[in-house]
Write a structure and sequence with these properties.
alpha/beta; 194 residues; globular
């Protein structure tokens, strides 16, 4: 019986220590009504293609639960060339997209067990070697843009953190946490929250 208790505590500790946290601060135009948008583009504007795909997929899954029509930018804005803002707006209009959720990395820092740290404000991912868990902290710029009115309706920053023994796990946990918080913060009205 005592052995099972230790197993349960071990399993619970894995779940409790591997969850990323995300906090969002934002401002929005007074008349912003996100429920009016029929088709939204998720555009994660970072150089790391793997993380771009992951975050776009996680946001798409969260918004699909809210019955939103979503397109991932990786599908119609491939990272094979540079796109201007007007290029992206034209692509959106050609695809009947009326809103864009644009996310970019403001800063990133890692810290591992031997107290070495890396800070890269450009969004390039460089990791140090460490002997224990890695703490990853990322800050994101979030813009929700109304394509038809050509205006930003919401602007926010998010700070996400996770600590894990693998950097890939940290990135996966942060992606899921950020996606969940974006949807809860901007797309679920207080009356819809349980």
């Amino acid at each position: 019986m005592e052995k099972n208790g230790y197993r349960i505590l071990f399993i619970l500790s894995l779940f409790l220590t591997s969850c990323a946290t995300t906090k969002i601060e934002s401002v929005k135009t007074p008349d912003a009504e996100l429920t009016k948008y029929k088709k939204t583009l998720i555009y994660v504007d970072i150089q790391d293609i793997q993380f771009r795909k992951l975050l776009e997929k996680d946001i798409e899954e969260q918004l699909a639960m809210q019955k939103k029509n979503i397109i991932k930018s990786i599908e119609i804005i491939p990272p094979l060339k540079e796109y201007s803002e007007s290029d992206i707006n034209k692509i959106c209009r050609d695809n009947s997209i009326d809103s864009i959720i644009k996310i970019s990395v403001i800063s990133l820092s890692t810290n591992n067990g031997d107290s070495s740290s890396v800070f890269i404000p450009t969004g390039n991912f460089v990791w140090g070697l460490g002997s224990s868990d890695i703490k990853l902290t990322m800050a994101f710029d979030i813009i929700i843009y109304d394509v038809n009115n050509d205006e930003i309706v919401i602007r926010g920053t998010a700070k996400s953190e996770d600590e894990n023994d693998e950097i890939e796990d940290c990135m996966d946990n942060i992606s899921k946490s950020l996606a969940k918080e974006i949807v809860e913060e901007f797309f679920i009205t207080p009356s819809n929250k349980i």
